[in-house]
Design goal:
Number of helices: 6
Number of strands: 8
CATH architecture: Orthogonal Bundle
Order of helices and strands: HHHHEEEEHHEEEE
Structural class: alpha+beta
CATH topology: Cytochrome p450
Length: about 200
């Protein structure tokens, strides 16, 4: 239970730091989020209301795609295999590192008009607001070994980010302090994040 809570704390707080950074860099995205939340004014949101916030969901998915808290995952092969593009032989028992960071930027998996190196939440929407590229978006892993805390993490992030957007506006602190970049500890943290905070009326 302790590892469940500590793993959830560091990854969720990292995702929140990236959310704040991206909101400061993309004011149009921030404004669109605030418009989505406007109908609720300043009230606390129920789980059902949080679930109805489609654009917030897209923004958080894009934050996690663009800056995954964990850069990858390790898997052990259960059968022999061969990489199709290179013919490289992989054997049962070999350990394979799957880079979530690289997969999230690979144009083979993120085709379309928007470059995968661009922050663009709308990539997760289509006409009926469903998600594209499910196999390439493995932030919580996949299959029977996927993160068991993903529902809690998503709910926490949605609740915190919605509350922030109801009360404050994040501004860009300037290139010297808010340049982004990455540093890795147990999670993939923003290297330089400096924002202004304006309390909304």
């Amino acid at each position: 239970m302790c590892s469940f809570l500590t793993a959830g704390y560091s990854t969720t707080s990292t995702a929140l730091a990236w959310f704040i950074h991206f909101m400061s860099k993309y004011p149009l995205v921030q404004s669109k989020l605030k418009r989505e939340l406007a109908e609720y004014h300043l009230q606390r949101l129920s789980i059902e209301q949080l679930d109805s916030l489609g654009y917030l969901d897209c923004v958080l998915r894009e934050v996690l795609r663009f800056a995954p808290p964990i850069i990858g995952t390790l898997r052990t092969l259960q059968v022999d295999d061969r990489l199709p593009s290179s013919g490289f032989q992989l054997n049962k028992g070999d350990h394979v590192f799957i880079s979530l960071y690289n997969m999230a930027r690979d144009p083979r998996y993120w085709s379309g008009p928007i470059d995968p190196d661009q922050f663009y939440p709308e990539r997760f929407q289509d006409e009926d607001n469903t998600i594209r590229n499910k196999a390439a978006w493995m932030v919580f892993g996949g299959g029977h070994r996927q993160c068991m805390g993903q529902d809690l993490a998503r709910l926490e992030l949605k609740a915190i980010c919605a509350r922030l957007m109801q009360h404050v506006t994040f501004g860009d602190g300037g290139p010297d302090v808010n340049a982004g970049g990455y540093k890795y500890s147990d999670t993939l943290l923003p290297k330089r994040i400096g924002v202004t905070i304006t309390f909304d009326d």
